[in-house]
Amino acid sequence: MSKAGDFDLATGLAGGIRKEDVLSTVEKYEKYHSYYGGEEKDRKDNYTDMVLDVGCGIGGPLREIAQFSMTSITGLNIHEYQITRGKALNRKVGLDKTCDFVKADFMKMPFPDNSFDAVYAIEATCHAPDVVACYKEIYRVLKPGQCFAVYEWCMTDSFDPHNQEHQNIKAEIELGNGLPDIRVTGQCLDAVKQAGFEVIWDKDLAADSPVPWYLPLEKNQYFSVIGFRNTAVGRFILRNMAKGLEYIGLAPKGSQRVLHFLLKAADGLFDGGRKVLFIQLLLAILEFYLSGKKYSQQCISSWLGSLMWTASHGAV
Fold this sequence. Notes:
By secondary structure, the protein is α/β, with parallel strands linked by helices. It contains eleven helices and seven strands. 46% of the residues lie in helices and 17% in strands. Helix 2 (19-37) runs antiparallel to helix 11 and helix 6 packs across helix 8. The radius of gyration is 20 Å and the shape is globular.
């Protein structure tokens, strides 16, 4: 794991997670890294020169993947503060010469056609107002015959749009996370096909994990520092803190309302995960298809190694 504190956070604070489970999960992802990614020299030989991170945030995955693959990555983000923060963090780890950020909308990227050797998006394109148009824009800037990898947030096939409880869970996730209509898994995969990609690999990465991804959101963790905030008592304290801070001007107006949205989102994510209605870690590897060309297994392995490495190291 990337930081010693990550292990303590995952085990001692998250509530109900045994160290053996965390180690088992990390070991599994490390095996993916070593099996699919190869040794350092092989990774350097296999990876491409110009990579785009669509909706990069402050660049946590960008830095992890750049360090793992030893490639140059451009992060695309519409938020000025996050870009400034990302650049500072890049300088801190010595990646400011090889990785950079561009402020732009991923629905209309300021790059020529066929600019990048590879593109990835991690929990970003789920925010697109028109996901097919977003994927088409990614298709445009990707070089022919190359690869696009994406993590998506999806509803599962168990989601019933006519079930009121299912609708409420979905609405809570959307409202609290600023999402448009969350698509079911099949719709996500159909959207990338409509954009011109060929789906060559997809998997719910959380499906086989011994530690449920939604466990830290459980409401009855009274003996966990992190989990306590989700209990009835913890939420009562949070609401009154937000109310008091907003009243004396230390928190901006609307903080109570935002907190309400976030707490509802936590409820929706927990219920959606527990009832297997929602997927947080759908990973798909996609190809810009060239007629008569078979996709390189080496390239697929490289992408899997890189993204599994990012998952196992908890990039932030």
